[in-house]
Amino acid sequence: MADSSCDLSLFPDSTAINQKGCLTIGDSNLEALAADFNTPLYLYDAATIRTQIHTIQSALDAYYPETSAIAYASKAYFSYRFAQKLARENIELDVVSLAELRIALRAGFDPDRIHFHGNNKSMDELQTAIEHDIHAIVVDNMEELLTLEKMAVQSGKTVRIWLRITPDIRVDTHPHIETSAATSKFGFHIVTGDAEQAMRYGLNSAAFNLTGIHCHLGSQLFDPIPYQAAIEKILELALRCNYTPLEISPGGGWGVRYTETGQENEAARWVRPVSDTIVRICHQHGLRLPKLILEPGRWLVARAGVSIYRIGFQKQNLDGEKLLAVDGGIADNPRHALYQSDYTAKIVQNPAGAADHSYKIVGKFCETGDVLIEKTALPEAQTGDLLIVPVSGAYQLSMASNYNLAPRPAVLWLEKDGQFEMLQPREEPDISSWWI
User: Fold this and answer.
1) Range 15-38+304-435: architecture per CATH
2) Active-site pick, 22, 215, 282, 366
3) What is the pTM of this model?
4) Element holding 416 (H helix, E strand)
5) Is 366 a catalytic residue?
6) Neighbours of 106 (CB within 10 A)
7) Are the C-beta atoms of residues 313 and 383 closer than 8 Å to each other?
């Protein structure tokens, strides 16, 4: 018996149920794609990503009266062909490694749209950023600031920098993705005086053009108040140093829901309080408004992505719990093991069926923690069915591994009318190379 009220709100915008009762995305036949490209398989819906970008930019246009920009946090998911798609959009980019920087440049990102983050950048990373005159090197600590100054002098360049300021406030998220507390490894802490020392040094050094200030509170945040508190702290610091920043970035981290019962989190709930706080403080102190740069990663791509698995064997524990094993797991999605993240799922061939069976979804890897979903309700599942997990577009593939020498899955970009492109092929390791 089918459930006519099938909730697809977690899925990409172009998701539908066809006449055969199967899920489609961008009018693509998911069963055919799984057969052609094997499983696990990851899909990104182009329409959803474009809509998410438009939604945030529209909120910025509505609530912030000065120049603004979106900088995609590439650590959420990045590949060369994906970068090519994003380079065509009117957005900037947050990178954190030499590979991400090189891919971004090769894919067509103007260096003036790239910001380089990270708490322990290598000499190669810093030198490459200097050579390409990127928009900003986001300096994390005093040793890096002094090292970068020497490199800038040797290169004969004035380097554009931001300072990453840690406001020493707590936020409500998993400890592993909180980045703003007094114990954080990131940034110049305000409470120690390091932030003020770095700001005064950066302003007085002829090697630098200190264009902006940055902070990042953490990920999966649903409350705008910490952003407002952080902005107040970093602008207060700037005022003490008699510094008017050209740019300010309160980071990213705005959360998304992973289950139907999760909290909705519209972009305007984030953008408006952030904008209002900057405007209020700047007007209060007679400062010109800086360019506002937000750095969403998860919010832009998480819901745009889905993962598809082939259901394998089933078993039942002594306590009656039903285990459903799939052909992926911790190697392509370690988020449940790392953060106890919740997910839900549907069966591609029967998404609207009565969800009257409770399953624990486990992977195929030799690890007790290889669990994708602790508990989800599905129609009765059969070996060979396709299980689709929504909200898979962020921090899954980017943290994937070859655990048990598993190949990383293929990734496709879906346009409308069943059109698709390969973003990255399924790995096919040369087994002989493992024995050399």
Assistant:
1) Beta Barrel (2.40)
2) 366
3) 0.93
4) none
5) yes
6) 12
7) yes
Q: pLDDT tens string for the chain (436 positions)?
A: 344 468 999 999 999 999 999 999 999 999 999 999 999 999 999 999 999 999 999 999 999 999 999 999 999 999 999 999 999 999 999 999 999 999 999 999 999 999 999 999 999 999 999 999 999 999 999 999 999 999 999 999 999 999 999 987 755 544 544 455 566 787 999 989 999 999 999 999 999 999 999 999 887 888 999 899 999 999 999 999 999 999 999 999 899 999 999 888 899 999 999 999 999 999 999 999 999 999 999 999 999 999 999 999 999 988 889 999 999 999 999 999 988 889 999 999 999 999 999 999 999 999 989 999 999 999 999 999 999 999 999 999 999 999 998 999 999 999 999 999 999 999 987 665 555 5
Q: What is the CATH number of domain 47-301?
A: 3.20.20.10
Helices then strands, each counted (H, E), the chain: 11, 21
Token duo for residue 305: 């992505």
Tell which residue, 121, 216, 187, 194, has the closest CA to residue 159.
121
Domain with CATH 2.40.37.10 in the chain: 15-38+304-435
The DSSP letter of residue 136 is E
